[in-house]
Write a structure and sequence with these properties.
Helix content is 14%, strand content 53%. It has helices at 2-12, 21-28, 36-40, 146-153, 169-180, 182-192, 391-403, and strands spanning 14-15, 69-85, 88-109, 116-130, 133-141, 196-198, 208-210, 217-240, 244-266, 277-299, 304-311, 315-328, 344-346, 349-352, 356-365, 369-379, 384-386, 406-418, 421-430, 443-453, 457-473, 482-499. It has a single domain (2-499), classed as Porin. The chain is built from seven helices and 22 strands. By secondary structure, it is mostly beta strands.
């Protein structure tokens, strides 16, 4: 009976806003993988077109195709993370395999003397972000988890933090979150786990102290994320005369994201009432989004091509739910009933990501090869949590506006053809989205690849590697514990295309 009543409570429970700058960055930042050819050339296709993933950079690119074509790409993702925390470096590696791209383009040539030479209709699926990742941080720190609960508890009355006679602890946990909010709910967890205690044993008490005594504590933190942000594109483009290509795309996003974190802590003083503590959190996000893009490519002469495109903001609609669990040697006996099966539901919210502008230049050396350069500009300070009238979102949006800045990114790619064989290489640079790059560093990447043209089909292989330093905070609030993580992502992609 307890499980049934708890499930009903879960469905009825809603929280005040808890979305932060991290949510905005997660869905505003694209790490587009694309076809194997696209990856091998660093994604520098804004003035080239003729590749299904190039539609994400410049939608005019589908009109560059001479023939109808379908293609798909399989990628292996290798993550290598070095986490520095408390003067200790911990290494974590992981792998995942996924079909990250599939699509097709249909080319219709004009049969009249019209200056509109052809039109192209294309559809394409691309993985914008693969969230599969994991890192472990271990170290000795003077900031224990008790500080997290004290931060939320100070000012909260003791009365609601007690379970009432005949009340299940998991029901009390959900009720407090729904009626009093996140801070009171975290205070409840710390109190029921015995990590914090009231200064006075009075329901009106609003001051608390820690049961943990230490100079430093040993912490082990594990963060595992999974999921994806995918984009399905419907594209239309046309060629005017011999030198101008114009196109537009409608983009439909689908989001699934899970983050689970585990924190274990020990190493307290020998006479400390608390001798061990654990605190785990689970976030699950689902949603969808929409954007559009416009672009053009011009042939200045036989060797020079120019491209320009606009990527609109992406409007996301998202829902979150969270679960928690906690334990210690002083926790109440039924603390285990608060677990990942007890779910807090949040109200639906929206995120508007900033628009992006891209300018491109390509040099084409006949059938022998090419060099291409893309430059993109995106002002991340314009990102918004919505509705903007929500007081919690208003303050967080002010923080976003003052903390994030403009992102300039460059992509450089080249291809050299030897009969049926194409040799490729690329470089990618993207500035930190933060005005202060101490939070997240700049991203650097390089790539290489090879392709073989069979005439009616093509097989492509690509290797790409990116590296970036990030300060990964353990919690969204309460304490500022963070690990400096050096992220090295290596992808190997195999793609196949067929002309018809």
């Amino acid at each position: 009976m307890k499980r049934i009543s708890t499930f009903i409570m879960v469905l009825a429970c809603t929280f005040a806003s808890a979305q932060t700058i991290d949510d905005v960055l997660r869905y505003s930042t694209e790490n587009l993988q694309g076809t194997a050819r696209f990856q091998a050339m660093g994604g520098a296709f804004g003035a080239l077109g003729g590749d299904l993933s190039a539609l994400n950079i410049n939608p005019a690119g589908s009109a560059v195709f001479s023939f109808s074509e379908i293609g798909f790409t399989l990628s292996n993702y290798h993550r290598n993370n070095d986490a520095l925390y408390g003067n200790t470096i911990s290494n974590t590696t992981s792998n995942s395999l996924d079909f990250n791209q599939a699509g097709g383009v249909f080319v219709f040539n004009s049969s009249t003397d019209s200056p509109w030479k052809k039109i192209a209709l294309a559809f394409n699926y691309d993985l914008v972000q693969n969230y599969d990742n994991e890192f472990i941080a271990r170290g000795n720190t003077p900031v224990g988890i008790d500080n997290y609960f004290l931060n939320f508890a100070q000012g909260e009355p003791l009365g609601p933090l007690r379970t009432q006679e005949g009340e299940f602890i998991e029901d009390a946990y959900l009720d407090i979150g729904a009626s009093l909010g996140y801070s009171a709910q975290q205070a409840f967890l710390g109190f029921q786990a015995g990590i914090i205690e009231p200064v006075e044993d009075d329901d009106a008490n609003t001051s608390y102290f820690s049961n943990a005594q230490y100079g430093n504590v040993n912490q082990r933190y594990l963060q595992n994320t999974s999921g994806y942000n995918s984009k399905f594109t419907f594209n239309f483009a046309t060629q005017y005369e011999d030198n101008l290509y114009i196109g537009a795309s409608l983009n439909f996003h689908n989001v699934l994201y899970d983050k689970v974190t585990y924190l274990d802590e020990d190493g307290y003083d020998i006479d400390s009432p608390i001798q061990f503590a654990s605190f785990d959190n689970l976030l699950h996000t689902e949603g969808y989004g929409f954007s559009f893009s416009l672009g053009a490519i011009a042939k200045v002469n036989q060797a020079i091509r120019l491209g320009g495109s606009y990527q609109s903001p992406t409007w996301y609609t998202l829902t979150d739910d969270t679960s928690q669990r906690i334990n210690s040697n002083l926790a109440v006996s039924d603390i285990d009933f608060i677990n990942f099966g007890i779910v807090n539901l949040y109200d639906e919210y929206r995120i508007k990501t900033p628009g992006k502008y891209t300018g491109s230049l390509a040099l084409v050396f006949g059938k022998e090869g090419l060099i291409s350069l893309d430059y993109s500009y995106q002002d991340m300070s314009k990102a918004e949590l919505r509705p903007t009238g929500d007081p919690n979102f208003a303050s967080e949006n002010d923080f976003i506006g003052s903390t994030l800045g403009a992102v300039n990114s460059f992509r450089l790619g080249g291809e050299y053809r030897i009969e049926q064989v194409s040799l490729r290489a690329g470089y990618r640079y993207e500035e930190s989205p933060y005005a202060n790059s101490d939070f997240v560093g700049d991203l650097n990447g390089f790539s290489a690849g090879i392709g073989y043209n069979f005439g009616a089909s093509r097989l492509d292989l690509a290797y790409s590697r990116t590296e970036q330093d990030t300060n990964s905070y353990f919690f969204d609030g309460g304490i500022d514990s963070a690990a400096l993580v050096n992220r090295r992502n290596t992808n190997i992609a195999l793609g196949y295309t067929l002309k018809f």
